[in-house]
Write a structure and sequence with these properties.
Length: 153
C-alpha cells in the first residue's frame, strides 16, 4: 500500500533502517511535535484524550474548507515513543487531504518496523491514535457535507 508522499518517505526510511537507527529516529521525531497553538493550549478541554495510550496523550484535528487536515498533539516529553509517533503523524500527514487520512490503515506502523522497537501495548495505543484522528476527520467532513447541503454516502 502506498501512503501520502511525505508519510511514505518516513515509512520507507524506518523500514530500511537498522533497529538502533529506528529507535534513534523515533526519539528524534519526539522533538518535532509542534507546540499547541493558543486555541488549544488555553483550552485543553477541546483536545480528545486517547485512553488506550499508556501515557497521557491528547489530540485534535481540523479540516479546512479545501479538505486539508491539520493535527495537534499533546504528549509529555517523558513519553518519547508515543510522542515520536505523534511527530511522525504531524510531519507525514499535516496538510494532506481528508480522504488520504481516512484511507490510512490504523496499523500502518507495521510497515515501519516499529513492532521491533515498541511494546505491543504502545502499538495498540498508536493504532488508537490513528483511529481517533480518522474519526475526528470523518466527523468534520460529514459536518461540512451536511452544512453545504450535500448528501454523504
Amino acid at each position: 500500500m502506498s501512503y501520502p508522499a511525505k508519510l511514505q518517505r518516513i515509512v520507507d526510511l524506518f523500514a530500511s533502517a537498522p533497529k538502533d537507527i529506528r529507535i534513534q529516529a523515533l526519539l528524534d521525531y519526539s522533538n518535532r511535535v509542534p507546540p499547541l497553538p493558543p486555541r488549544y493550549a488555553d483550552n485543553r478541554d477541546s483536545l480528545e484524550q486517547v485512553h488506550e495510550c499508556q501515557s497521557p496523550f491528547f489530540l485534535a484535528t481540523e479540516v479546512d474548507e479545501s479538505g486539508a487536515v491539520t493535527m495537534f498533539f499533546e504528549s509529555p516529553p517523558e513519553a518519547p515513543t508515543v510522542r515520536g509517533y505523534a511527530g511522525i503523524l504531524a510531519e507525514g500527514l499535516n496538510g494532506e487531504q481528508a480522504t488520504a487520512v481516512l484511507e490510512l490503515p490504523n496499523d500502518f506502523y507495521y510497515g515501519m518496523g516499529l513492532e521491533d522497537i515498541v511494546t505491543p501495548q504502545r502499538l495498540r495505543g498508536m493504532g488508537a491514535i490513528v483511529a481517533r484522528l480518522k474519526r475526528q476527520v470523518a466527523d468534520q467532513v460529514a459536518g461540512s457535507a451536511g452544512e453545504s447541503g450535500e448528501v454523504s454516502t
